[in-house]
Amino acid sequence: MLIPKDKNSNYNAMDTNEMKNSIPLIDTRSLVDKVEMNLIDIFISRKLNPGDPIPKEMELSEAMGVSRTVIRESLNRLKTMGLIESKKHIGTVIKSPDLSSLLQKSMIPRILDQSTLKDIFELRLVIEVGMADLVVNRATAKDIEELSVIVQNEISPSENVLFDVDYEIQFHGKLYEITGNETLKGFQKMLLPVFNYVYTSGLINKTFAEKRFVSHTELVEVLKLRDADKFRKAMRKHLENHFKRLLTIETGTPNQ
Questions:
Q1: How far is CA 164 from CA 155, 167, 200, 244, in A?
Q2: Which of 8, 72, 231, 236 is most open to solvent, judged by the fewest CB atoms within 10 Å of its CB?
Q3: Considering only CA atoms, which of 222, 239, 240 is closest in space to residue 231?
Q4: What is the pTM of this model?
């Protein structure tokens, strides 16, 4: 049995589409969400810099037409984000946010899925290969001496060894320190729990054909040459096993 078409169906469809185009979407954000964004706009429009005081709660409440409770909750969110802070005898001031600190609050390895853990571990590899110029140009004789002390008890590279986590953190942590880049050092501290979990979880416990890598001891010797290109290549070779393990995860087959 044929069901007769609704003669108004085309009209209704067109009418709905026209309404979608002509009626603005309803802003479903909460009042606190809106105030939070407006506060940021106010700080930007006033060209406030770190250390500059922001308007008081009462002033903001009157200017935005909302309660002080809403203003207070919005400001608390901005404090959590690291955008403002309270200063004794001054009040609330603009703060330059600590990016690594913000991310660290959500870096809980056991509630991150394997895809995210893998992404974070890849980030570590890319950073360490890329920071060769900073390490080579900023390493002092004392820095190189300290690295030499760290590697004194390094075991010889073997086919299946995964670096000892504590030892690798000590060595690579020193490299991050040598860069003199506070954001990089912050990222390294942030990523430490993830590194440890990736090692212990077996996420990168894969086998592959070529297993020889540049050791930490060899990296120190290359660093003494003060050649950024050579150090970058040595670091890439040092991390070769990790790259191969990650690629094995993607393909599901040993990387030749």
A1: 10, 5, 11, 18
A2: 8
A3: 222
A4: 0.68
